[in-house]
Amino acid sequence: METYRGMDRDALSEAYNNRAVVPDWEAMMGDWQQRSAALYQRPGWQRDLSYDPGNPRRRFDLFAGSRPDLPTLLYLHGGYWQWNDKEGQAFVAEGLTAEGFPVAIGEHSLAPEITMTGLAEEMRLLVRGVSRQARVAGRNPGVVLLGMSSGSHLLALTLSLPEVLGALLISGAYDLEPVRISPLNDAIGMSFEEARAHSPLHQPQAVSKPVVISFGADERPEICRQGADFHAALVAQGYPARLDPIPDTNHFTVLETLAAQNGALCRTATALALSLAAREN
């Protein structure tokens, strides 16, 4: 039987089950849906922009904002590569849009209809699509990544793209080996080789860019460890990376600090985008 850090399939299922330790997660996600729908009613949104015509899930929503000089903040939802869509987590842009920042809310295909290799390719298409749209519209074509959970993992695979200026990655798993061994892989179907190839922890990062690795301080220990390990790997490769656990938050409530205009992660994201824009000028 395969194990990871002494944990077998059943133990890994528990270690990565974020919902099990947040009893009201369903109510929270229902609230997110309502708040996202309300946010979309505000002026300034473009919906369902395609980054690959012909695939209905390869799309993003865009709030262009009032600052065309700033890079676009690209948010990608979580859902362990097999659940959720952009409409359910768009509420996270509330504070960012209130400040006038350009914000894109991305979406991707879901396993088992797509492999991890296919998802990695989709992420490159997404980032380039967001950048291209900004360039055509006369805005700053740079992209700052904002990922959550599996969205953090997927966006981390694009750090080397020239369009990417920096990243805030929240509650991600950057080594896919425990995922491969766990029941989560039943839908994804990764081999050892594929999991290794798409694990940011094990990939050399060719270009040094500012990256903030964050997570809720009250999350599952494995999620916290994964973030700390990826941070250490980035620092070892010369990245100006920062580790930023958010006190008194879990895998769900941590997103509230991104949605709130005065929230810790909203402040981090806006400061990061402003510093990167200043660096370009």
From TrEMBL:
Keyword Hydrolase (UniProt): yes
Superkingdom assignment: Bacteria
The entry's keywords: Hydrolase
InterPro entries, per the entry: AB_hydrolase_fold, BD-FAE-like_dom, GDXG_lipolytic_enzyme
Manganese among keywords: no
SUPFAM superfamilies: alpha/beta-Hydrolases
Gene Ontology terms, MF aspect: hydrolase activity
BD-FAE-like domain location: 68-157
Protein name as catalogued: BD-FAE-like domain-containing protein
